[in-house]
Amino acid sequence: MKSNVLKISEIEIKSSLINKQSGYDLIFFNDMVLNAEIGIYKKEIDIYQPLRVSMVAKVRNPKRINDKNISSVVCYNQISKKIKKIVKSGHTMLLEKLAEKIFEECFKNKRIETMKIRLEKLNAIKEADSAGIEVERSRIKQCKT
After folding, report:
1. Are 99 and 134 in contact (CB under 8 A)?
2. In terms of DSSP H, where are the helices of 11-112?
3. Which of 13, 48, 121, 124 has its Cβ near the most Cβ atoms within 10 Å?
4. pLDDT (0 to 100) of residue 129
5. DSSP, res 73
6. SS3 state of residue 7
7. CB 98, CB 132: distance < 8 Å
8. What local confidence, expressed as pLDDT, does residue 2 receive?
């Protein structure tokens, strides 16, 4: 029985117009909803509230993609697990601080150059679907000594 799955390793690039050393991949996920202890107001202490998280990470194009080894790419699932762990780690007063914690953890992966995070509190304003922040940061450039 023949498989209908096309493996990346079987794709032949026939164009000499593609510079394989250039470009970026954008890794993303949208609208992941988590229960979070977040907020500065008295009514937000010791309660969980829904938090919607979306993320885009700009990653230098990998030179070799190995479809048998997930570590050859930056995995959106691994990023989502890191964010879940940070959110579950305890109460954070401000969305801005939560974003900072996420950037610090995700930038440990040196392949991630820039990230944009959108954090939305779904119950913050009665008349609105959500309220929150969208923050974009780039990793610092390392000095060569």
Report:
1. no
2. 76-88, 95-106
3. 121
4. 96
5. S
6. coil
7. no
8. 62
- Asked if 39 and 51 count as a contact pair (C-beta separation under 8 A), the reply is no
CB distance 91 to 44 below 8 Å: no
Torsion, Cα 137 138 140 141, to 10 degrees, reads: -160
Q: What is the CATH number of domain 20-138?
A: 3.30.1130.10
DSSP character string of 38-63: B-SSGGGTT--EEEEEEEEEEEEPPS
pTM: 0.81
Question: Counting beta carbons within 10 angstroms of the beta carbon of residue 96, is it exposed (0 to 12), middle (13 to 18) or buried (19 or more)?
Answer: exposed
Amino acid at 5: V
Give the position of tokens 């202490």: 45
Pairwise CA distance, residues 114 & 138, whole Å: 4
Q: Give the closest residue to 51 by CA, choosing from 65, 73, 34.
A: 34
The total number of residues shown for the chain amounts to 145
pLDDT by 10-residue block (mean), the chain, 145 residues: 63 64 87 96 94 95 69 87 97 97 94 96 96 95 59
